[in-house]
TrEMBL record:
NCBIfam families associated with the record: PRK14651.1
Species of provenance: Deinococcus gobiensis (strain DSM 21396 / JCM 16679 / CGMCC 1.7299 / I-0)
Involved pathway(s): Cell wall biogenesis; peptidoglycan biosynthesis
Domain FAD-binding PCMH-type: 25-192
Gene: murB
Pfam families hit by this protein: FAD_binding_4, MurB_C
Record's protein name: UDP-N-acetylenolpyruvoylglucosamine reductase
Amino acid sequence: MTATTPSRTGVRVERLPLARFTTLGVGGEAEVWFAANHAQLAEAIEAPYRVLGGGSNLVIADAGVPERVVRLTGELAGRDLEPDPALSTDTEIVTGWVGGGVPLPGLIRTLQKLGLSGLEGTVGIPAQVGGAVWMNAGTRYGEMFDGLHTVEIVTPQGTRQVTPDDLEWGYRQSGIARGEVVSRVRLRLTRSTPEAVLEKMTHADEARKGQPKMKTPGCAFKNPGGVSAGKLMDEAGLKSTRVGAAMIAPEHANFIVNLGGASAADVHALLDLARERVGVPMELEYELWPERG
Ligand SMILES: Cc1cc2nc3c(=O)[nH]c(=O)nc-3n(C[C@H](O)[C@H](O)[C@H](O)COP(=O)(O)OP(=O)(O)OC[C@H]3O[C@@H](n4cnc5c(N)ncnc54)[C@H](O)[C@@H]3O)c2cc1C
């Protein structure tokens, strides 16, 4: 289908380079389906698909992916933060619906200004709400499931609304299956003050000081057996190592950055080199699209 092919629901479809939707700035073309409401999302996921959020945990191949890539826009990227009077109290509020396509950093800033506490520990995570909920993104200061009331999940079989108690969530996992789309959520937050929320955010922000400011998909490897992957990579002399325009960050060895014009092949080569030099099995933190054997 091209940009001009009409769809049943009017969903916008374009063949686009995926690099522009990722924080690493790498990735070839795919057919992107911009789902602006539930009907469009239902149509978008009628054929094999992948959901793309903020693209902050992905390395997408230079050849792109063969499946449809679904982006949540329009109503599914809108937010209603008004307290629901039936569910809110003097101390706690439950919001209206917040779309899975809402950028998390902007939402966290707004909640701070409103003096609503619960999600400020996730400050600095460059995700969309849906992607962050899907993997329960967080820091040592807090995680997405600290502030959820309801999660709406869309699959080709239909839509269901669940509470956190219905899900087997835990450390960096939501219990929501791969391919199930987090379309919207309602937040459960505590009434606080902008100053108090800001102070909590400052601690989480401080912890990011050593991270590189360049294009990156975040940490490359999980810590093997509790040992810091960054420390192992540093000890293996990997800081500032380059392949093409991809580099292991001089500030922090567990971050690969794009110096400008890096390819996915450059990044894959650096990941392979790091594993070989460190000599300890290290599991990737981010996802490769398509998966590599
Ligand atoms: C600079 C930097 C700092 C980071 N710091 C942290 C941190 O402190 N803590 C942390 O946990 N992570 C961190 N990350 C990693 C990343 O932000 C998280 O993994 C985040 O949850 C990814 O969300 P996303 O919307 O970008 O998802 P994407 O990268 O777009 O996708 C990742 C996965 O989520 C799925 N997905 C995306 N949207 C949806 C949806 N609506 N419904 C269902 N599935 C979906 C995708 O299909 C894919 O499988 C960091 C990344 C960067 C670049």
